[in-house]
UniProtKB/TrEMBL annotation:
Domain Lipoprotein LpqB C-terminal, residue spans: 315-549
Superkingdom field: Bacteria
Keyword Signal recorded: yes
Signal peptide positions on this chain: 1-18
Protein name listed in UniProt: GerMN domain-containing protein
PROSITE patterns per record: PROKAR_LIPOPROTEIN
GerMN domain location: 173-277
Length: 557
């Protein structure tokens, strides 16, 4: 029942422009949404009288390229029974290189072979999976009142590569971490346009069960409780209405509900505030009935001053492009191979990588192991110590081994925890020598880290020698690797989309250096720091690549 209702909700999004004419020209409209989408609006024609089976199939594929999105005309190419059973909202397949076979007569029906190369698939929630798969299907057609119509067609929408590039854009929708203290992004693709806020909220309302590689929760009522679309008024206020009473919710639940919705709709151009209503009226939060999208900063997934930790001449410093600052209470750390810190915790790995030292309040905590990876200190101040035998966490002097059995069978080469501390990422090598980039959930019990959840592989077929993985945002990774642009900094979304050298909007070419490790300063704008074999640090910012005023650096993190 839940799937059927969710399908109905998404169908409302798809059919929102169903009253447009059944045929007409491609038109251009003003592009004021700032997402770089095509401005072409297209209303395909319905089936022509006397159309051949081949023309009907081609027309059906063409009808799914309507913009604004509508499945109405496409359904006219189906028999009445097939139209009732067709579920266009179930998925979206992105394809290229479509081919048609010969029509094969079978009594009063026809069979046409349709083939294409699938390049990506989106599920009902908008989750992206890259593909490179040749698909071949037989579509059966029957006569309805003397006209050919498709009697068997695959569920979901089929759109071309060009259509996907023109009209789909990546967004993050937001759930809550297990402690409900901050939001966790989940990457989706949605069609831009007037129905974008509705589509984004539909992704959240379906629930967090399929959120990519994260264990999350939600305060947003289920999809069947969402009333229609999400309109935006002249004051840029998005009206979100549910069919359940909300005014009896405790204040903390109201805030968590609003945080999810505000953070999610903040990604839709034109939305400046949100008004949430239940069946019992408008929901007031903190005395306000309109929630500004700049509010709920306390739920933010990232908090950092944009600096990184570095060991310069055996002394711990925090670096940016122009300054070096000492870390209070910590000075000489000696010769180290890896470092990580926040404002109160410093973790270092010894030069032979057999020891790891955590400096907090009180006496330092020292661990021994085999081939420690670079340490990591997450947003909660927990230090992650990963070596060839175990994954341990250190907090307030307490050392605990956590269950990381899901990573058995691979040799880890780097490890990092996301800014929201909800996910982990690793680069790894299998016993067969295959390199992998993996992302999985960090699972907690009573707020404490308990184990690592089953990871998902991030498609990176064009990369080799992957190492030094780090998080740029809650849904984008950066790493050092060899690829089409040579030995370089590459970044990719955790769903495998938008694999590129460097970061979006920044220059690509790495200076002629031999990179050793990579770090990201998470401030208002991400900054990439690369340490070379000669102990020099390079910074990539919107200004381009530049040298950091620090020599004899042995580790960054």
């Amino acid at each position: 029942m839940r799937r059927a209702v969710v399908g109905l909700l998404t169908a409302l999004v798809l059919a929102a422009c169903a009253s447009i004419p059944a045929s007409g020209p491609v038109t251009e409209v003003e592009d004021d949404r700032g997402l770089g989408e095509s401005t072409a609006r297209y209303t395909p024609a319905g089936p022509a009288p006397g159309a051949t089976p081949d023309q009907i199939v081609r027309g059906f594929l063409e009808a799914m390229l309507a913009y604004p999105v509508s499945s109405q005309i496409a359904s006219e190419y189906l028999t009445p029974e097939a139209a009732r059973e067709w579920r266009p909202s179930e998925s979206t397949t992105v394809y290229t290189d479509v081919r048609f076979g010969q029509s094969a007569p079978e009594g009063f029906s026809r069979q046409i072979r349709v083939g294409w190369r699938a390049t990506a698939r989106l599920d009902e929630q908008g989750h992206y999976t890259p593909m490179n798969e040749r698909v071949e299907q037989q579509w059966r057609l029957e006569r309805v009142e003397g006209q050919w119509r498709i009697a068997e067609a695959p569920d979901g929408m089929l759109v071309t590569d060009e259509y996907f590039e023109d009209y789909f854009r990546p967004f993050d929708v937001y759930f809550l971490d297990q402690t409900a203290s901050h939001v966790v992004p989940d990457p989706v693709f949605r069609v831009v346009g007037d129905q974008l806020p509705t589509a984004l909220l539909a992704s959240v309302a379906e629930g967090p069960e399929r959120a990519r590689a994260a264990s999350t929760r939600s305060e947003v009522p289920a999809a069947e409780r969402l009333r229609g679309s999400v309109p935006i008024d002249a004051q840029r206020v998005a009206d979100v209405e549910f069919t359940v009473p909300l005014r009896d919710l405790p204040n903390d639940e109201r805030e968590r509900l609003a945080a999810q919705i505000v953070w999610t709709l903040n990604g839709a151009p034109g939305v400046g505030a949100v008004r949430i209503s239940g069946s019992d009226g408008v929901l007031a939060i903190g005395g306000e009935v309109v929630q500004d999208t700049a509010a709920y900063a306390s739920f933010a997934p990232v908090s950092s001053d944009g600096r990184i930790a570095a060991v310069v001449d055996e002394r711990l410093r925090r670096l940016d492009a122009d300054t070096q600052r000492a870390v209070p209470g910590v000075s000489v750390v000696g010769e180290v191979a890896g470092v990580a810190s926040n404002q109160t915790v410093v973790a270092t790995v010894g030069p032979d990588r057999s020891t790891l030292t955590v400096r907090e309040e009180g006496e330092p905590t020292e661990l021994t192991g085999q081939a420690f990876l670079d340490p990591f200190v997450d947003r909660d101040g927990t230090t992650w110590a990963v070596d060839g035998e175990a994954v341990r966490v250190v907090s307030d002097g307490d050392v605990r081994a956590i269950d990381a059995s899901v990573l058995a069978g691979v040799a880890l080469t780097s490890f990092a925890v996301s800014p929201d501390a909800a996910r982990y990422a690793v680069t790894a090598r299998t016993t067969e020598g295959t390199e992998q980039l993996l992302v999985g959930p960090v699972l907690r019990e009573d707020g404490a880290v308990e184990r690592l959840g089953t990871p998902m592989r991030v498609p990176t077929a064009s990369l080799a020698a992957m190492r030094s993985v780090t998080w740029v945002t809650g849904t984008r990774l950066a790493l050092l690797a060899e690829g089409s642009a040579g030995e370089q900094v590459y970044s990719v979304r955790i769903d495998g989309s938008d694999l590129r050298p460097s970061l979006p909007g920044l220059t690509t070419l790495l200076p002629r250096i031999e990179p050793v490790s990579l770090a990201v300063g998470l401030g208002e704008e991400p900054r990439l720091y690369v340490l070379d074999v000669e102990g020099r640090v390079r910074l990539l910012s919107p200004r381009g690549w530049e040298r950091v005023d620090a020599e004899s650096v042995t580790a960054i993190g």
